[in-house]
Amino acid sequence: MKKIDVLVIGAGAAGLMCAIEAGKRGRSVVVVDHSEKPAEKIRISGGGRCNFTNLHASPENFLSQNKRFCVSALKRYTQYDFLELVNHYNIAWHEKTLGQLFCDDSSFQIIDMLLDECDAADVELRMNTEISNIIRRDDAGFDVTTRTGAQWTCQSLVVACGGLSIPKIGATGFGYQIARQFGIDIVPTRAALVPLTFDPDTRADLGQLSGISVDAIVQCNKKQFREGLLFTHRGLSGPSILQISSYWDEGDAITVNLNPEEDAFDVLKSAKSENPKQAVHNVLSRILPNRLAQMITARHGLDRPIGETGDKALRALATDVNQWSVMPQGSEGYRTAEVTIGGVDTNALSSKTMECRDVPGLYFIGEVVDVTGHLGGFNFQWAWSSGWSAGQVA
Questions:
Q1: Which residues of 365-377 are buried (b: 16+ CB within 10 A; e: fewer)?
Q2: pLDDT, tens only, 204-260
Q3: What is the rounded distance in angstroms from the CA atom of residue 29 to the CA atom of residue 169?
Q4: Do 320 and 300 meet the contact criterion of CB atoms below 8 Å apart?
Q5: pTM (two decimals)
Q6: What is the DSSP string of 191-241?
Q7: Parallel, antiparallel, or unpaired: how do β-strands 142-146 and 151-159 relate?
């Protein structure tokens, strides 16, 4: 059995960051992961360019049962600290909308940067390595055994194996299993930052709109986001829908403003007085994509000139534009979800170090913890911040 200081389970963003920081302190560190390659979520993020942080990252961009838990880590290791590391490696980047930072070239630049930092800190990576047993020793350390028989004894055990999102790249619930082994509660989990789906009838009604995108304000449970919305053959997607999915629960309706820039009733009323012979859908197509305008007017049965249409009917039509209420049946689930909401209960952890209060030497970081960011680089920032925090003490 090999004796080391720190064993990190999970070679993703949080795990690698923690390993780097612990290694810099002269700790002997091994990172194990059951996948073939490290940092698969980094690889696929941002369309292959990795939305590695957000300039506006703050505690307000995160969900948790304890909304203050993330404050310490985010304050101690900020988006600007990570950006300094990126700049040190001369990785070219650009800002997209709303403070989102992406590599100009490839997400592999971020992965290579982290692996280079691991090498410099003498961190050992063991891929294709699956943990079979964890035992708490009497001296407060841990004995860890793999399915192939490799064994380590360590002072600190860091769980960084993520949530349930995107199982095709190796996501499992192993981190929650470890937490339960040591008596730590799990906040119920569900898919988040995920497309929403319709029931068969709604899908049949709206399926013709697949591929149409609009700028929209989407609201649910007193939260709203203004970003792009995309109609799909199964329901709704796009950044605004992914964002609101974190606040949506089964049985909730969402309200969508399909054109936040204009009051549809004002547009229709003006057209009625200025050119009453126009078809209603032609007027509506000035402010909406044509297929969408045609579908909405057809649903209201307004296949006549606008001058022959009463204000009450126009008001109802406008409501479907600026306050469309629709009830999703569900979501695409973990298969396509970018993150998992819920996870290891933060009440069990120190917000400064990520160490378990009742199990000294055991740490949980990254997505496995009940801290979930908005879309746009916030979840990576939580990985960097929580990983850095644990790496200072493990």
A1: bbbbbbbbbbbbb
A2: 999 899 999 999 999 999 999 999 999 999 999 999 999 999 999 999 999 999 999
A3: 24
A4: yes
A5: 0.96
A6: EES--EE--HHHHHHHGGGTT-EEEEEEEETTEEEEEEEEE-SSEEESHHH
A7: antiparallel
